[in-house]
């Protein structure tokens, strides 16, 4: 029987590549994002979307959470709306999707949760404060969840890329050198390994994938 994955942010520049890679490897994939009507930043709508995806797939082996957002701004200059947006997209969405997935993963006897963290959440990043703080909180959530779920067969990890080579990032930074950025295909390959039996010995890891940045 093929394995089953929920991939959030599935229609984005990274999500489309990751979804294609998982499908190509024989996985059944259910994609969740705003395009599919799933507001994952709210607890009840996230729960409903995850439960519907599990029912469609007939079970769950992996959750690949790629939803997130980015904004510029310092602590002093970023307004409340920027802080709220980063918190909802980068932290709350992950919390709600992870929490809603636990029942299905437990019923499966275990599985994999991987979220998309950020290099900026590990080191001080002037001018990126709301983004960096929300990602740092996400990293803490991953490590706490991994500790809480130890012994259940459910692993929780994060991949921490620098800038990802997507069409949106190329358009936003036309003067940058995308050759130094992380390729979506490389992230997809890592995620496939992390979701495979070979990756099940790793939990609570914050895995940097930073290219030449």
Radius of gyration of CA atoms, rounded to a whole number: 16 Å
- Per CATH, which architecture? 3-Layer(aba) Sandwich
The tally of beta strands, per DSSP, is 6
Instruction: Bin the strand percentage.
Output: 15-25%
Fourth CATH level, the homologous superfamily: NAD(P)-binding Rossmann-like Domain
- As for the number of domains, it is 1
Structural class: alpha/beta
Strands ordered across the widest β-sheet: 2-1-3-4-5-6
Q: What is the straight-line distance between the termini?
A: 40 Å
Write the CATH fold name: Rossmann fold
Helix content: 40-55%
Q: What is the gist of this entry?
A:
By secondary structure, this protein is of the alpha/beta class.
Would you write up a description of this structure?
The N and C termini lie far apart (40 Å). Helix 1 (13-24) crosses helix 6 (184-195) and helix 2 (43-57) packs parallel to helix 3 (80-107). The model has no long low-confidence stretch (mean pLDDT 94). Helix content is 44%, strand content 15%. The chain has 213 residues and is of the alpha/beta class. It has one domain (4-209): Rossmann fold, CATH 3.40.50. It has helices spanning 13-24, 43-57, 80-107, 129-148, 167-172, 184-195; strands at residues 4-8, 28-32, 62-65, 111-116, 154-161, 206-209.
Offer a few descriptive terms.
213 residues, alpha/beta, Rossmann fold, six-stranded parallel beta sheet, 6 helices, 6 strands, globular
SSE order and pairing:
Layout: E1 4-8, H1 13-24, E2 28-32, H2 43-57, E3 62-65, H3 80-107, E4 111-116, H4 129-148, E5 154-161, H5 167-172, H6 184-195, E6 206-209
Parallel strand pairs: 1-2, 1-3, 3-4, 4-5, 5-6
Helix pairs in contact: 1-6, 2-3, 3-4
